[in-house]
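Researcher:
Attend to token order:
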Amino acid sequence: MNKLTPIELLDLYKAFNQILALIIGRRFARQSEHLHNKTIERLDYCQDLIKQELKEACDLQDTIRVKQATRKLDSLDSLVTIFSFLRRLD
């Protein structure tokens, strides 16, 4: 497999962070902005935020928010998988 150039890696990480922001939403994207250069820590932090959101939705028995938070967690799990492959290219 060919190694990626530094520019290609930078573009890849930028795209990754944009997708993450779309999944987690504006509020959590801003809350995790301080970790934008620490992707794995940001993913962990975002998972914690979404788990808290899920807990609150469960406590309120808000099925719509429960489904939304569950989808976010599933999508974050997919991003973790993608990131593990991305790190191999680095």
About this structure: The mean pLDDT is 90. The CA atoms of residues 73 and 84 lie 17 Å apart.
